[in-house]
Design brief:
The chain has 1 helix and 7 strands. It has about 100 residues and is mainly beta. The chain has one domain: Pleckstrin-homology domain (PH domain)/Phosphotyrosine-binding domain (PTB) (PH-domain like, Roll). It has a 7-stranded antiparallel sheet, with helices on one face. Strand 5 (about 50-55) and strand 6 (about 65-70) form a beta hairpin. The longest helix has 12 residues, at about 90-100.
């Protein structure tokens, strides 16, 4: 198995007003996006060609949206660590999807 192109843990994943997990995982590996629960069970996955990522219209820097096969998920990724000087994980997630899909996320 190849090294993941993007991975984030402790992610709050929701769909609409429903929270699916408060400590999930988001992974991009081998051209696939995987949304996992805190126990490692798959919530959803799809090839990156079928995924659209972006930011919600309004909200904090730590939020991103992922549309997987027409199902829209709200991801609250946050920074890797408190006081982290790098870009927030939400922006890194969106950039990773865009790079993998050729900029059309």
């Amino acid at each position: 198995m190849a090294e993941p192109e993007f991975t984030a843990t402790g992610v709050r994943i929701g769909r609409g007003l429903r929270s699916l997990t408060r400590a999930g995982q988001v992974r991009i590996t081998d051209g696939r996006l995987e949304l996992l629960t805190s126990y490692g069970s798959e919530i959803d996955s799809a090839p990156l060609g079928e995924v659209r990522a972006g930011r919600p219209w309004f909200g904090a820097e730590d939020r991103a949206t992922a549309e997987v096969d027409g199902r829209r998920y709200l991801l609250r990724l946050g920074a890797e660590r408190q006081g982290d000087a790098g870009p927030p994980s939400a922006r890194r997630f969106i950039d990773a999807v865009r790079r993998a899909t050729g900029g059309a996320a």
